[in-house]
TrEMBL record:
GO MF entries: tRNA (guanine(37)-N1)-methyltransferase activity
Pfam families: tRNA_m1G_MT
NCBIfam families: PRK00026.1 (NF000648), trmD (TIGR00088)
EC number(s) given by UniProt: 2.1.1.228
Main location: cytoplasm
Lineage, opening ranks: Bacteria, Bacillati, Chloroflexota, Anaerolineae, Anaerolineales
Protein species of origin: Pelolinea submarina
The protein's name: tRNA (guanine-N(1)-)-methyltransferase
Protein family: Belongs to the RNA methyltransferase TrmD family.
Length: 253
C-alpha cells in the first residue's frame, strides 16, 4: 500500500516512520510512505503557503494553489485514490474506518495547519475528512501519523503475529482482554489459573469473558453494536449480576 503525506513540516514524520512497526512494514515492502513538503510547490521566492483570510479575523489560512499543485503533481493528474484531510471537523477515526482505508491500494493524507485550509481544497480536492476527537491540535501531522499506523498494522504481514490485529480492542466490537507475562507471581499478584492451565478452550472462554467484562465496565456503549452470541449475552447477565453492573438497554430485548 502506498501513502503520500502532504505537510509543511516533513521532519516530524521521519523519526517515527523509521521505528518499529512502520520501519518493518517499509523494509518488507508492505507499505511505501512518501512525505511531501507542500512548500516545494509554492510559486513565489518566499515559498509562501498561507495568507490572511478574506473578511478579516485572526490567524492564517493555507493557500489552495500549493496544495492543489502538490497533490496533482504527485498523482500525475486528478487523484484516483482517497485524499484525506486531517481536521477536527472530520468524522472520528474508528477501527472500522481504518479497515476501510486498509483495503485501498493508495492513500493521500493532507495535514492542515494554522486556521486550516482554503475551503476550495475541502470542496474540490479532499474526498474525506478525519478527526482524532473533539479537540484541536496545531496541525495535522500527529493525527496523520495515527492514521498511518492504524491502517498499516491492519495490512497482512505488518505485525509479527498474523492474527494480532484481530484480537485488538475494537477489532471485534469489544475491548481487548487482559494480558499477563512472566513471572507468574509478582508481589503476591498471580496470573489467573486459566492462562496457566494449557487448556486452550478454557483460555479462550476466559478471554472472552474478560473482554465482555472490560467492555461492560468501561465502554458499555460498544455492546450495542457488537456481534454477540446467545452465549455472550448469558455471560453478560452473569457478569452484570456478579459485579453490580447494568447491561445497556437493547441488548436483552
Amino acid at each position: 500500500m502506498r501513502f503520500d503525506i502532504f505537510t509543511l513540516f516533513p521532519d516530524v514524520f521521519y523519526p517515527y516512520i523509521n521505528t518499529s512497526i512502520l520501519q518493518r512494514a517499509c523494509a518488507g515492502q508492505i507499505v511505501e510512505i512518501n512525505i511531501h513538503n507542500i512548500r516545494d510547490w509554492s510559486t513565489d521566492k518566499h515559498h509562501t503557503t498561507d495568507d490572511t483570510p478574506f473578511g478579516g479575523g485572526g490567524g492564517m489560512v493555507m493557500k489552495p494553489d500549493p496544495i492543489f499543485n502538490a497533490v496533482e503533481s504527485v498523482a500525475q493528474g486528478k487523484p484516483d485514490c482517497p485524499v484525506v484531510l486531517m481536521t477536527p471537523q472530520g468524522r472520528q477515526l474508528t477501527h472500522s474506518l481504518a479497515e476501510q482505508f486498509s483495503r485501498e491500494p493508495r492513500l493521500m493524507i493532507l495535514c492542515g495547519r494554522y486556521e486550516g485550509v482554503d475551503e476550495r481544497v475541502r470542496r474540490f480536492l479532499v474526498t474525506d475528512e478525519i478527526s482524532m476527537g473533539d479537540y484541536v491540535l496545531s496541525g495535522g501531522e500527529l493525527p496523520a501519523l495515527v492514521l498511518l499506523e492504524a491502517v498499516t498494522r491492519l495490512l497482512p504481514g505488518a505485525l509479527g503475529d498474523p492474527d494480532g490485529a484481530f484480537d485488538d480492542s475494537f477489532a471485534n466490537g469489544l475491548l481487548e482482554y487482559p494480558h499477563y507475562t512472566r513471572p507468574a507471581a509478582f508481589r503476591d499478584w498471580t496470573v489467573p489459573d486459566e492462562l496457566l492451565s494449557g487448556n486452550h478452550q478454557a483460555i479462550a472462554l476466559w478471554r472472552r469473558r474478560q473482554s465482555l467484562l472490560r467492555t461492560l465496565q468501561k465502554r458499555p456503549d460498544l455492546l450495542l453494536s457488537a456481534q454477540l452470541s446467545q452465549q455472550d449475552i448469558d455471560i453478560l447477565k452473569e457478569l452484570a449480576s456478579e459485579n453490580n453492573l447494568k447491561i445497556p438497554k437493547g441488548i436483552l430485548e
